[in-house]
């Protein structure tokens, strides 16, 4: 599938290399240059709301309230 691994001990360099690789692949697909400001108001708001819940409420927020067993 064209995958590969590269090890980089410096996290900043690793991040820069990963973004450069993504940019190269986007260009090869004739996709527009990534604009990080375009998607600022994404789905993170819901994740932040979920993380702010007390731990005992998080599961119910994802899966709904537990149902009583049917007889």
The total tally of domains equals 1
Approximate shape: elongated
Structural class comes to: mainly alpha
Q: Major sheet, described briefly?
A: none
- Per DSSP E runs of 2 or more residues, the count of β-strands stands at 0
Which radius of gyration do the C-alpha atoms yield? 20 Å
- Terminal-residue CA separation: 50 Å
Query: How many helix segments?
Result: 3
Summarize the helix and strand pattern as letters.
HHH
Helix content: 40-55%
Strand content: under 5%
Q: Whole-number average pLDDT?
A: 82
Uncertain segments = none
Topology:
Elements (H helix, E strand, L loop, with lengths): L10 H18 L15 H9 L2 H9 L8
Polypeptide structure, described:
The protein has helices at about 10-30, 45-50, 55-65. It is an all-alpha fold and about 70 residues long. The protein has one domain (about 10-65). It has three helices and no strands.
Keywords:
71 residues; mainly alpha
In short:
This protein is 51% helix and 0% strand.
């Amino acid at each position: 599938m064209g995958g590969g691994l590269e090890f980089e001990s410096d996290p900043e360099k690793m991040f820069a290399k990963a973004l450069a690789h993504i940019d190269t692949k986007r260009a090869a697909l004739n996709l527009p240059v990534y604009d990080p400001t375009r998607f600022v108001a994404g789905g993170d708001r819901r994740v932040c709301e979920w993380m702010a819940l007390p731990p005992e409420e998080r599961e119910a927020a994802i899966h709904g309230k537990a149902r009583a067993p049917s007889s």
